[in-house]
Amino acid sequence: MEVHIRLDGRRNLSAGIYRQLRQAIIDGVLRPGEALPPTRQLAARLSVSRNTVGVAYDRLASEGYITAQVGAGTYVSFRAPRAPQRSGNSRHPGVLRPQPHWSSVELPSLLPARQYNFRTGAPDGSLFPYAAWRGLVTRELRSIASRGNGYGDTAGHRGLREAIARHIAISRGIQASPDDLTITTGTQQALDLVARVLLAPGDRVAVENPGYLPAIQLLHSLGAKVVRVPVDEEGLVVDALPKSARLVYVTPSHQYPLGVTMSMRRRETLLSWANRTGSAIVEDDYDSEFRFDGRPLDPVHALDTAGRVVYIGTFSKTMLPALRLGFVLVPPALREAVHKAKHVTDWHTNTLIQGALARFIDDGEYARHLRKLNRLYLTRRDRILEILERDFADVLEPLPSIAGMHVAALSKAMSFAELDAVLARALEQGVQLHSLSRYPVDRGDRPGLVLGYGAIATEDIAEGLRRLRAAFDA
């Protein structure tokens, strides 16, 4: 490892090298067992004599900071003195200040999941086809090596865009050109690109209430004026949309977090509203791959004849969030601007993972993987609903949920604070789930909770809900 040493002037250079290496060892910058550069190499880099560096090394060795092994090199001693760990950041905080908006944004907790993990949006990592995926990544690495290591297409891997276009045509009835697809680093970036292209600071944007908090925070950060619009049993209440809204962000297939599906009548009404007001619709189809009951409804995008709907999809729910892959399908009029927005923000998404996913879809592995997930998630959803109806009938009212990876239930009598206290007690017993209070809701609405079934093992559901019931009883 290159060690940064600053030498001022030409006097007492050995002492300067000694002090800086000693301080690096004490501060833990150079760790026990770490190799120091050979004296000849460090001397050449610092433009000093080898003897100058040797004197500094000899002094460090005599004081026990480093040890030299003949023929093997010089290493930081495991017995070297270390400074006590400092609490917090000792650096000066600086005079720069962020915009006030950022003080209201909370980062999600990354604490380890509890045993009974009912968190939303988390797929079952144990079901991921690691062996098949490893082989595809290896093949793609060889392919990349053969064609050179240049940057990729801003729009994304051509093969992946073609595979996605075929997939959503078959599974969602959406006719799309690969040219209108842009591969993104997840849903958040897809929404960010669209908002950058369509919105100016101060533009009004409508979102669902309750709704997906990261999307709302993103729109706020771009200077949009966010208006929350209520959701009922048919989805977003179109009659409550402000006429001045430039854009509306919706999750019609499986509303997040309530889980209701927007009715066909409401979808058509939403499109009529957009055509009448000249607004854009962003349709986030985040987990529609999992559908269990009823006839599938056409996505809003498939009903659009005027080019007003932007369609967003993600692989975080069907594959792994760690892959950070999503896509956005835009009308041809927005294609070039979205590509430019992608270019100036991060150029392109990981080409290695894109290529592997293209092969995964084309080989039929993705379809087989989805069929397996659908069978298992249906079993888990039904198990949760069965127990809620049997053991929680006096305290919770489950909402209909015909798709997705979570179900929501409203409290029959508790306040937001009381229900949050119940969930805190459940967390102490290893049960992890979300309260509706974590989403932007009006306090006049009923409190409730959301139970995800992507990550929890099927055999753990009964015990997890038993502990949740005990928390209610407490």
What does this structure look like?
- With 474 residues, this protein is of the alpha/beta class.
- It has helices at 13-26, 39-46, 50-62, 130-147, 158-172, 186-198, 213-221, 264-277, 300-303, 332-346, 351-362, 365-391, 416-428, 461-473, and strands spanning 35-36, 66-69, 73-76, 116-117, 181-184, 204-209, 225-232, 235-236, 247-250, 280-284, 309-314, 326-329, 396-398, 406-411, 431-432, 434-435, 448-452.
- The protein has an eight-stranded mixed sheet, with helices on both faces. Strands 13-14-17-16 form a four-stranded antiparallel sheet. The protein has a three-stranded antiparallel sheet with strand order 1-3-2.
- Helix 9 links the parallel strand 10 and strand 11 (309-314).
- Helix 5 packs across helix 11 (351-362), helix 6 packs parallel to helix 7 (213-221) and helix 12 (365-391) packs parallel to helix 14.
- The longest helix is centred in the last third of the chain and has 27 residues, at 365-391.
- The radius of gyration is 28 Å and the shape is globular.
- The mean pLDDT is 92.
Sketch the major β-sheet: 8 strands, mixed
Strand order of the largest sheet: 5-12-11-10-9-6-7-8
Beta percentage is 5-15%
Would you count the extended β strands for me? 17
Task: Note the total helix count.
Answer: 14
- Distance N to C terminus: 57 Å
Percent in helix: 25-40%
Q: Structural class given helices, strands, pairing? A: alpha/beta
**Dominant shape:** globular
Low-confidence stretches: none
| Residue-averaged pLDDT | 92
Gyration radius over CA: 28 Å
